[in-house]
From TrEMBL:
Signal peptide: 1-18
GO biological process per UniProt: proteolysis
Cofactor(s) this protein cannot do without: Zn(2+)
Pfam families the UniProt entry points to: Aspzincin_M35
Similarity-based family: Belongs to the peptidase M35 family.
Superkingdom: Eukaryota
Protein name: Lysine-specific metallo-endopeptidase domain-containing protein
Organism: Ganoderma sinense ZZ0214-1
Length: 373
């Protein structure tokens, strides 16, 4: 039971046969004085009759990382500025790790709640105090493991939301300097980074050449960005790669074993979009091959795309399977998804897998909003 000072709305995200039934709730205080005390709680309940294993992916409700997982809007249509992290995460790498930190296991009827410090990820200085509606981002996704494979359940319309009144100071005064500092890179890690940089640059060059030669009708373009119904999408994709080509990846600052890396299987690295040139790298990066999908070289491209200076390409979906599904069903989102650029660049170089690995997303369920309490 929630106290009266808390408001909540439930959204039912479900449900084809053999698909998990999940209840998602967004809750928090009705009134907040000062954004430093603004916390939102997401609660996920297994409403089905079977045990479910959910991946703790960074942009989902089971993660406490300061990622851009919420849409927050006041009555004037203004939103706070995002100041958190954007990440490179691979569901297949998390799955393959066999690390229990990769999952949340829920028995039938069981639920789990995660608290999110909103001021870690959002700056209200511009939008100011007032009443806000907080909801999960569109296309929020649950990745779950079943039968030795990963599938994805994507939330439909009518997401869970919470309404809050913010009074007092809209500027955060918490000391977060320690969260921006990466660990010291050892000599072997520096060599691993240095080995990947030339290949990352080749990926970008070949991506530009492929886009120029084959245009929007190329096989790999259609695979990762959808069919060529809109020429401006091809122009946008090409523009992002040309912007990357002007970067010197060797001049980036690479911070190893960074603050948010611990116990995060599948997390290769992350950046603060407005802190151009600093890439925080995790152990998963150094465990990866130098080239190919979800590699050291492709991670450098992925993280570079997240920088505001390079266009602030977003992260709507993670992994090859859902990336291809974006291209098929939501091509406008595929053209704004860093994974799709990463995989296209690898394919343009001819360095992608010959076939789908057994641990890639094998099924995508688009959940329909069927109940709103």
């Amino acid at each position: 039971m929630f106290r009266l000072s808390f408001l909540s709305v439930l959204t039912f995200v479900a449900a084809a046969l053999a698909t998990p039934s999940l209840l998602l709730e967004v809750s928090g205080p009705s009134n907040v004085y000062g954004v430093d005390s603004f916390n939102i709680t997401t609660t996920v309940k297994n409403a089905g009759d079977e045990v479910v294993r959910l991946l703790n992916h960074p942009r989902g409700p089971l993660s406490d990382l300061p990622t851009d997982m919420f849409t927050i809007t006041n009555r004037h249509g203004l939103s706070p500025d995002f100041v958190g992290i954007t990440v490179k995460y691979s569901p297949s790498a998390a799955f393959a790790s066999k690390d229990y930190h990769a999952y949340t296991v829920l028995n039938p009827g069981e639920s789990i709640s995660v608290q999110h410090d909103i001021s870690d990820a959002y700056d209200f200085s511009t939008s100011g105090p007032g009443q806000y509606v907080v909801m999960m981002k569109n296309f929020n996704t649950f990745y779950y493991a079943a039968d030795g494979k990963i599938s994805a359940l994507v939330g439909g319309s009518g997401h869970a939301f919470h309404t809050v009144n913010i009074a007092g100071n809209a500027r955060s005064y918490k000391d977060r300097a320690h969260k921006h500092i990466g660990g010291f890179c050892e000599a072997w890690q520096e060599r691993a980074i240095d080995a990947a940089i030339p290949l990352a640059e080749k990926y970008v060059t070949h991506a530009i050449e492929s886009l120029a030669k084959n245009g929007p009708k190329g096989t790999e373009y259609k695979r990762w960005f959808g069919h060529a119904l809109h020429g401006d999408r091809h122009t946008s994709v090409s523009g992002h790669f040309h912007t990357l080509a002007a970067n010197n990846f060797s001049e980036y600052t690479y911070a190893c074993n960074a603050h948010f890396c611990a116990n995060r299987p599948g997390l290769f690295g992350y950046v603060y979009p407005n802190k151009f040139g600093t890439v925080h790298l995790c152990g998963q990066f150094f465990d990866a091959e130098v080239g190919g999908h979800n590699s050291r070289a492709s991670t450098i491209i992925h993280e570079a795309l997240h920088f505001a200076k390079n266009g602030a390409v977003d992260e709507h979906a993670h992994g090859e399977g859902l990336g291809r599904e974006l291209a098929r069903s939501h091509p406008h989102l595929a053209a704004a998804n860093a994974d799709n650029y990463e995989y296209f660049a690898v394919a343009a170089f001819g360095d992608g897998p010959e076939g789908d690995a057994s641990v890639l997303l094998t099924q995508v369920h688009f959940g329909k909003h069927i109940l709103d309490l």
